[in-house]
Specification:
By secondary structure, this protein is α/β, with parallel strands linked by helices. The chain has a single domain, classed as Alpha/Beta hydrolase fold, catalytic domain (Rossmann fold). Helices cover 32% and strands 14% of the residues. It is built from ten helices and nine strands. A nine-stranded mixed beta sheet has the order 1-2-4-3-5-6-7-8-9, with helices on both faces. Strand 5, helix 6 and strand 6 form a beta-alpha-beta unit. Helix 1 packs parallel to helix 8, helix 3 packs across helix 10 and helix 4 crosses helix 6. The longest helix has 24 residues. It is globular. The relative contact order is 0.12. GO terms for molecular function: hydrolase activity. Belongs to the 'GDXG' lipolytic enzyme family. It holds the Pfam family Abhydrolase_3.
Length: 412
């Protein structure tokens, strides 16, 4: 059972979120539409970026699309420069990290991260998301690119989902521009603002052939959509290759309720009523349906076939009403031989590993460590995955980067 602090915070969170959802529902349609979009709301606590290494991670913000509010925050761990391949680096006037020209640099996988918030709130720059991404960047030894997608109802479906795929295409462009830079053409390529189009951190340290997508809550639905689009695109995304996805507390729902959707309908943080309101705000009125492809991963006819999906790690919590549908999706993936382990956390609540007030709990820290073990497994000689089995139940499977071994059942 969640402790008193979690219960109290849940009450406060639900009060604030229900008020936001209701106020957005009551706003006239004419006042909602905003093609440029917004990526955060005034009440969101924002963490400033810092291009110098603070607590082992440097961050910077990028406005990725001149035609919308789509933004990115890049998290670069200091392990990218703390190696024999990169003995020194330049520090420009603004005081941030800049890769030294003409040197070899350590390459890290790139992880696209999609925050939660029921499609209507949250931000890639929020205090909680910033802290979570810093933790993931350090533990997983990856470059995290947190996506500031456009929020509903100002931008209806499929806006936020298309933003996710647009970032994947942006990554592919960055990888190709970096190649141009190595051929001596970098200084001659500029964007519409007159600035160099090449993002130096990604050019120096990003390995886009090892791209992982991580989505939290509603962000998990976006991640799953982007992965599907990447599978359909195939080689058109080269050199970007999506090798895995991580779905944390997916925001899945459907018209036929599951056992958990009945038993836990009034669960902590996000309950079923709030979830339905969020989907009403996201989907165009004529498309509203709880069995919409973006909402229900188990409907027939979704493309591409499940067997084409990359390795998928799913994280669920005992007291999350959306857990059963996420578990069922993971099971369907395993049925077609997709590597799809499941982490099920006892006494956990929706987004326990990412909410700002719960980030420092032992369970949140253990969850991040478990995710990092799965992500990093192929880069270790030890072929045994050891997870925090005292805090969660694991359905074993293999790492996204492995093809020849399984997690031994009962490993602890």
């Amino acid at each position: 059972m969640p402790n008193l602090m979690v219960k109290l915070y849940s009450v406060i969170f639900k009060y604030q979120q229900k008020h936001l959802l209701q106020s957005l529902i009551e706003t006239p349609e004419s006042n909602k539409s905003n093609p440029f979009g917004i990526t955060s709301r005034p009440q969101e606590s924002i963490a400033a970026s810092n291009p110098s290494f603070t607590d082992g991670v440097a961050t910077k913000d990028i406005h990725a699309d001149p035609f919308s509010s789509l933004s990115l925050r890049i998290f670069l761990p200091d392990t990218a420069v703390a190696s024999s391949l990169a003995p020194s680096f330049q520090v420009p006037n603004y005081g941030g990290y800049s890769p030294a020209a003409g040197r070899s640099h350590r390459k890290l996988p790139v992880m696209l991260q999609f925050h939660g918030g029921g499609f209507v709130s949250g931000s890639n720059e929020s205090v909680g998301n910033d802290a979570f991404c810093r933790r993931i960047a350090k533990l997983c030894d990856v470059i995290v690119v947190a996506v500031g997608y456009r929020l509903a109802p100002e931008t209806k479906y499929p806006g936020a989902f298309e933003d996710g795929f647009k970032v994947l295409n942006w990554l592919a462009k960055q990888a190709n521009l970096a190649l141009c830079g190595r051929l001596g053409a970098q200084s001659h390529i500029f964007d519409s603002f007159g600035a160099s189009m090449v993002e130096p951190w990604l050019a120096a340290h990003g390995d886009t052939s090892r791209c992982v997508l991580l989505g939290v809550s509603s962000g998990a639905n976006i991640a799953d959509y982007v992965v599907r689009k990447a599978v359909e695109a195939g080689k058109r995304l080269d050199p970007v290759k999506v090798v895995a996805q991580i779905l944390m507390f997916p925001f899945f729902i459907g018209s036929t309720p599951t056992h958990s959707e009945i038993k836990l309908a009034s669960s902590y943080f996000y309950d079923k009523t709030m979830c339905k309101l969020a989907w009403k705000l996201l989907l165009p009125k004529e498309e509203f349906n709880l069995d919409h492809p973006a909402a229900n991963p188990l409907i027939d006819g979704r493309q591409p076939p499940l067997k084409c999906m990359p390795p998928t790690l799913t994280v669920v919590a005992e007291h999350d009403f959306m857990r059963d549908r996420a578990i069922a999706y993971s099971e369907e993936l395993r049925k077609v031989n997709v590597d799809a382990p499941l982490l099920d956390y006892k006494d956990g609540v929706h987004e326990f590993a990412t909410l700002d007030v719960l980030l420092n709990t032992p369970q949140a820290q253990a969850c991040a460590e478990d995710v990092s073990i799965w992500v990093k497994n192929d880069r270790k000689n030890d072929k045994t995955i050891r997870l925090s089995l005292n805090l969660c139940h694991v359905i074993p499977d293999i790492s996204p980067f492995e093809s020849s071994h399984s997690i031994p059942p009962g490993t602890a």
